[in-house]
Amino acid sequence: MVFLSMTEPILKHVCQVFYDSHFGTAIRESDNSFSIIESVHVLAITLLVGTISILDLRMLGLVLCEIPVTRIARAVFPFTWAGFGVMFVSGFLLFWAEAAKNYVNPAFRVKVILLLLVGLNPLLFHTSVYRRVTEWEHEHRSPWRARAAALASLTLWSGVIVAGRAIAYF
Question: Quick one: pLDDT band at residue 5, thresholds 50, 70, 90?
Fold first, then answer.
């Protein structure tokens, strides 16, 4: 707790610097920049979450059950990473434009926490159950740990999207 209380003024100051910068002000006050960046951000999230959902739903045994998990993963991962890259850059630009407001926004804080958790989920998945994917990838139902990771992924990404939309209302 002491660490958080010590870093909070620093984070608040950094957010204010971003907010007050010429670049942040230009995005925020432009007639079109913010809405274009936000639209790109939403489309990138759609690509990212859409491709992840295909793999998650396959691991839950709900779609494409005849296709091996690794084949689906190889097909969607390039699109997943492209969506992630564009989502990250556009999200950072949106944050830059409204950093001081986002700092105190509870929905933004929830979104950041959910993004950390949603990033941890595939890390744990790929370093554990996915290492043995050749043993179960042809099964209609994946092992319970793979299904749990898929369910966590779908739930966390849904939370990220809801919290992201809620930012505008706080």
Answer: low
Largest CA distance in the chain: 55
Report whether pLDDT(154) > 90. Answer: yes
DSSP string, the chain: -HHHHHHHHHHHHHHHHHHHSHHHHHHHHSSSHHHHHHHHHHHHHHHHHHHHHHHHHHHTTSS-TTS-HHHHHHHHHHHHHHHHHHHHHHHHHHHHHTHHHHHT-HHHHHHHHHHHHHHHHHHHHHTTGGGGHHHHTTSSS--HHHHHHHHHHHHHHHHHHHHHHHGGG-
Per-residue tokens: 65:
């059950």
Please report, in angstroms and rounded to a whole number, the separation of the first and last CA atoms in the chain.
25
Compute the distance between CA of residue 145 and CA of residue 118 in angstroms, rounded to an integer.
16
* pLDDT attached to residue 7: 60
Place of tokens 């595939």: 122
